[in-house]
Amino acid sequence: MLKGKTVLLGVTGGIACYKSANLASALVKQGANVQVVMTRNATEFIGPHTFESLTGNRVSVDTFDRNYQFQVEHIALADQADLVLVAPATANVLAKLAHGLADDMLTTTILACNCPKIAAPAMNTKMYENPVTQDNLDILRKYGWEIVEPASGRLACGAVGKGKMPEPEDLLECVLHALSHEKDMTGLKVLVTAGPTREALDPVRYLTNHSTGKMGYAIAKAAAARGAEVTLVSGPVNLKKPPYMEVVDIVSAQDMFEAVTSRAPTQDIIIKAAAVADYRPASVAEDKIKKSGNDADLSLPLSRTSDILAWLGEHRSPGQFLCGFSMETRDMVENSKQKLEKKHIDLIAANNLKQEGAGFGVDTNLLTLISPDGAKELPLMSKEEAAHALLDEIMGRR
C-alpha cells in the first residue's frame, strides 16, 4: 500500500528504540522506501546496522560524514521524503523541532522537509506532562505536525503512567492513513455501519448472525484514508477501534437504526455494511419474556425490526448517495436488484455466501456491484482492496 513512497524514520535516544526496528520492518513490508536517520544518543540503544539490514538503505547519523556521495545529504533526504515519522520522539528532540533548532543530522534534515510530519513522543510520565513539553507539542501541532498520543503503562524507569511509545502497528496505521491513498474524498461526510446486531430473547440469550464487521471496518478505514470525515456505527465485534473517525457502538438493530437516522441528514454518503439481525421478539412475546426470565420460550413469535435502508431511501437528503450490502445463497443479482428498486438506493454490493472467499469470517471478498445500470463483477480481493474498489465506484457515480 506504500509502494513508491519514501518514509523518513527519525529514531531518537530512548529505550523505545527497539520498537522502531519492528516499525521499519513493517513499513518495508508495505512497500515503502524507508530512510532512517538516527541521533547519536539513539545509537547507544540500537545499532545502525539493524536498520540498514531491515531497510536496505544506509542509516544517516553524522551531518559531516565524508562517505556520502557528492551532494548535500540532509537536503537530498528531505527531497525524497513523502512523510517524516519520528519514533520515538524524546522531549529534547521535540523541543528542538518546535523551535527550529538544527544541530544534528536528524533535526537539520527535518527542517528541510516539506511533507507531512508525525511524532510519537516517548519519555518519562513527568517529562511528558511537564508544561514545557506540552507547550512544545502544541507548537508542533500549530505547524501541522500530527502528534500520536503515547500509551499508558509501566515505563522503563519503573514509573507507571503515560509516556510509552505506541506499538508499531498503531504507528503503521498513521502512516497508511497519511500516504496510502490520494485524498479524493476530502470534505465529504461518510457514515458506515458494520458488524452484527443482537436482539435479546431473555437476560441470557439473543439472536444474532455471523458478521465479524471486517468489511465495514475496511470501508470506514479506506474512506478515512481518502480524506473523508467518517462515522462508523458498529455492532459488537472483536476488532480494534480504528483511528481518524468517530465510532458509535451499538447493540440492537433499533440502536443502529436510531444512530444512523439521527445522523443521516448531514451525511454525503451512507454505506450500510452491517448484517442486522432482522427479527426481535414481538410485543406479546416481550411481555412473556419479562415475566418468565431465563425460561423464555424460544418459539415465541418474532417481529421485524425497523428497516434502515428503506428509511434512508424514503428520507434521503439532496445529493446523498446510499449503498447497501446484500448476502445471498441463490439468485444473487435478481434478489439484489429487487432490493435496490424497492428501497430506492443507488448501489448494492452483493456477494454469494456459497462462493469461496466471500462472506463472513474471511479476509477476502468477492463483490458484485449492482446499480440501476446493471451489474459489475469484481475479482476476488482483500477486503481492504474491495473497500477501495467500492469507494471508487461510488465516487464515479456521485
Characterization of the model:
- The protein is elongated and about 70 Å long.
- The mean pLDDT is 89.
- Strands 12-11-8-13-16-17-19-20 form an eight-stranded mixed beta sheet, sandwiched between helices. Strands 2-1-3-4-5 form a five-stranded parallel beta sheet, with helices on both faces. Strands 6-7 form a two-stranded antiparallel sheet.
- The longest helix has 15 residues, at 383-397.
- The chain has 398 residues and is of the alpha/beta class.
- The chain has helices at residues 17-29, 48-55, 73-80, 91-98, 105-111, 125-129, 131-142, 168-179, 214-225, 253-263, 283-292, 308-314, 332-343, 383-397; strands at 6-11, 33-38, 83-89, 117-121, 146-147, 151-154, 160-164, 189-194, 199-200, 206-207, 229-234, 246-249, 269-272, 279-281, 302-304, 321-328, 347-352, 364-365, 368-371, 374-377, 381-382.
- It has two domains: 6-179, Flavin prenyltransferase-like (Rossmann fold), CATH 3.40.50.1950; 189-397, Rossmann fold (3-Layer(aba) Sandwich), CATH 3.40.50.10300.
- Helix 1 (17-29) runs parallel beside helix 2 (48-55), helix 3 (73-80) crosses helix 5 (105-111) and helix 4 packs across helix 7 (131-142).
- The chain is built from 14 helices and 21 strands.
- The two termini are 25 Å apart.
